[in-house]
Sequence to fold (267 residues):
Amino acid sequence: MKVAVGGPLKVAFRPWVEGLENVPAEGPAILASNHLSFSDSFFLPAVLDRKVTFIAKAEYFTTPGVKGRLTAAFFKGVGQLPVDRSGARGAGEAAIRSGIEVLERGELFGIYPEGTRSPDGRLYRGKPGGLARVALATGAPVVPVAMIDTEKIQPPGKVVPKLMRPGIRIGKPLDFSRYQGMEHDRFVLRAVTDEVMYEIMKLSGQEYVDMYATAMKRQLADAAKAEKEADKAARAALARAEKEQAEKEQAEKEKAGKDEQTGEPRT
Fold:
């Protein structure tokens, strides 16, 4: 996949990279990145010599039909691990187990602390469960990564990407060994996550929003739904008004016709 996908990707888009020396040449490490586009999981591995394993929703691996099988083969080839989000605690526990297994093999584990793509290009609050727990359970260093302009190449919902140069900034590894054995302390998990998000913010230059991206997406969806319903109500009211006006005009025409037949003056 590095040859079949990574090579053409680098030739076509020519991504620029800063801080490549901060990725360990060997041994386990966590690459914690902001998440702007579906293509983030392809650009980052394309510029690295080592394999990066990300987690992905299980639906990418279980869709039936020829297209589904091709999609599953593609995601397996680029190092994605399926995570079933239907459990009682969703993807969290499955993601943590997957991350620990990857790191115990001495490999690179890629994770998006925001938990989902940014809905508007800003950087959102990191979720404290996955990233921090994996880091503290394994002792692996956390390497902050900032993807630059990938949302302009392939915004959500767009299939055909735009040819332009994205950027990748890689920060110095963060050591959280001082918190070893405290992976169940929620205050420690929050502190670790916030420190990583701060480094990502410095690298990316994004505006930081102190709320979860999933909450913002719900707000945007609710606002869009309310706007759609208001527009529908306005169109219905306009249609009723036009109907009432047409009925009134028709009634006046019919009355005028009767007046002409009887010779009565029009009122």
Notes: The first strand starts at residue 16 and ends at 18. The mean pLDDT is 86. Residues 108 and 195 are 20 Å apart (CA to CA). The first helix runs from residue 2 to 13.
